[in-house]
């Protein structure tokens, strides 16, 4: 069923500081403007067969565009976003970005590690969401095209300094986006630290495989038979509950909109526990949009996936005149479980000096 082949090797890295001065096949670069505090932001365009195109900017290591053919071969942009950097800075609900240092929530905006308490920013009620007020999504990364045997690629790197948003340790981060010749967008994450620290990275793309409208008619399968029970503020209670018999059950294909009204919060915002036998890359999700015929499978090495159905979108002006209404896009955020720093029974997110954090998530595209 899974036709993924491991062993992708990084063949080389071309360092560039000069816009347009590189020539990695399938990768081009241009400027995406300058941040409010004067930092230049570069955009990388990865071109694959059949017009497939991914665009990534160095602000937040963010996926801004993803063009895929429909059943007739007509290209459509299937991720939500903005036309300008100023809009990403001013009003982005985490569109397409790399989220961290700790994706999702940390209860009480603090944690204790090795006997030391670390206070964090409370930017979601009393809790910390997506790394704090100025998480990795709001920082300008370094970017360089890479020669990768699987296809055109860009590698984004960032050193998050000791104390950044309250987290300990100088954290060296790298996220590589690879548009493979097999029709996949592969994201490889890597991090090392000089002090023990929690790390939980994800990509926060909002997908709409129709390219417009809501995601109600998308058909979703999630290979997850349990979820982490959330409290009223979406902090896990610690219980892993079965999805069977609830509107959260996507173990068999079901429409995203069909049972939304039965979910107490009027949509999905749940961390699913991925069914897996080991820690390798497994098929986690299958998303299909019947009108366009576009399909996306998600494979990951992570133990969890946050299925968020864009519940907080409410008429946000986006790319090319689009207006993003409630449920205009959905996120499948592969991750470790929320609030893992307070749950020793959950898979650990603590990275220690000498260890290397590595995670891979693959988005595999096709039409049906
Ligand atoms: C969270 C939502 C949050 C959203 C922000 C998701 O990962 O689970 O609760 O509102 O990110 O856009």
Keywords for this structure?
368 residues; mainly beta; Beta-galactosidase, Chain A, domain 5; five-stranded antiparallel beta sheet; 30 strands; binds beta-D-glucopyranose
Structure, explained:
With 368 residues, the chain is mainly β. The protein has one domain: Beta-galactosidase, Chain A, domain 5 (Distorted Sandwich). The protein is 2% helix and 42% strand. The protein is built from one helix and 30 strands. The strands form eight sheets. Strands 1-12-13-14-15-30-24-23-18-21 form a ten-stranded antiparallel β-sheet, with no helix packed on it. It is globular. The relative contact order is 0.17. The N terminus is likely disordered. Bound molecules: beta-D-glucopyranose. The site of beta-D-glucopyranose has 9 residues, from strand 25.
């Amino acid at each position: 069923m899974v036709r993924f082949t491991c062993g992708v090797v990084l063949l080389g890295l071309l360092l560039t500081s000069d816009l347009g001065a590189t020539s990695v096949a399938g990768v081009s670069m241009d400027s995406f403007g300058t941040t409010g505090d004067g930092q230049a932001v570069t955009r990388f365009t990865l071109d694959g067969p059949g017009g497939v195109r991914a665009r990534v900017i160095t602000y937040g290591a963010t996926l801004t565009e993803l063009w895929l053919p429909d059943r007739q071969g007509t290209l459509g942009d299937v991720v939500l976003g903005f036309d300008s950097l100023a809009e990403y800075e001013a009003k982005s609900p985490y569109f397409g970005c790399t989220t961290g240092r700790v994706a999702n929530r940390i209860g009480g905006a603090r944690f204790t590690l090795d006997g030391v308490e670390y206070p964090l920013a409370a930017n979601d009620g009393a809790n910390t969401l997506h790394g704090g007020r100025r998480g990795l999504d709001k920082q300008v990364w370094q970017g360089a095209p890479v020669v990768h045997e699987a296809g055109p690629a860009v590698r984004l790197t960032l050193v998050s300094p000791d104390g950044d948003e309250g987290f300990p340790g100088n954290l060296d981060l790298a996220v590589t986006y690879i548009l493979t010749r097999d029709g996949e967008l592969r994201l490889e994450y890597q991090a090392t630290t000089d002090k023990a620290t929690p790390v939980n990275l994800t990509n926060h793309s909002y997908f709409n495989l129709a390219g417009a409208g809501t995601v109600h008619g998308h058909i979703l399968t999630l290979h997850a038979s349990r979820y982490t029970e959330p409290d009223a503020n979406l902090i896990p209670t610690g219980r892993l509950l079965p999805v069977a018999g609830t509107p959260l059950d996507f173990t068999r294909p079901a429409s995203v909109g069909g049972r939304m009204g039965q979910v107490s919060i009027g949509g999905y915002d749940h961390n699913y526990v991925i069914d897996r036998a080991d820690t390798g890359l497994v098929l986690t999700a299958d998303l299909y949009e019947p009108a366009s015929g576009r399909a996306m499978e998600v494979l990951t090495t992570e133990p969890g996936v946050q299925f968020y159905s864009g519940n907080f979108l409410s008429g946000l002006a986006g790319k090319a005149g689009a207006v993003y209404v409630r449920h205009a896009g959905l996120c499948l955020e592969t991750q470790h479980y929320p609030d893992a720093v307070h749950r020793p029974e959950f898979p650990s997110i603590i990275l220690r000096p000498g260890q290397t954090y590595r995670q891979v998530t693959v988005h595999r595209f096709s039409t049906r």
